[in-house]
Amino acid sequence: MFASTFIFRAGQYDEEFHRLDQQIAEAARSIPGYAGEETWENPGAGLIQNVYYWESEEALQQLISHPVHQEAKSKQARWLDGYRVIISKVIRQYGDGGVAQPHEIRPA
């Protein structure tokens, strides 16, 4: 499993940002190999973190190369006050069952 973590500081959003953000999420969920997602916020630092989980690096690459993702990436400076991306390989995950696994987390 792979995780792509997008950490950013929000700037000024507009209608185009929200449209592209929704389209990216829909594109990700439609890719075979998509395994789930989580979003975290650190209000003290002013950061938001979106984590997408993937069954393979190839699935992740499909989102990276998707035209809507490329469009949003080219315009990010209009909406964000900085960002960073972390691509990582998940070696293992475990818990007591009280917190859902990424594939069990589905957006409303």
UniProtKB/TrEMBL annotation:
Write down the superkingdom of origin.
Bacteria
Instruction: Write out the GO MF terms.
Output: monooxygenase activity
Which UniProt keywords are listed?
A: Monooxygenase, Oxidoreductase
What's the protein called, per UniProt?
A: Antibiotic biosynthesis monooxygenase
Q: Which organism is it from?
A: Paraburkholderia ginsengiterrae
Phylogenetic lineage: Bacteria, Pseudomonadati, Pseudomonadota, Betaproteobacteria, Burkholderiales
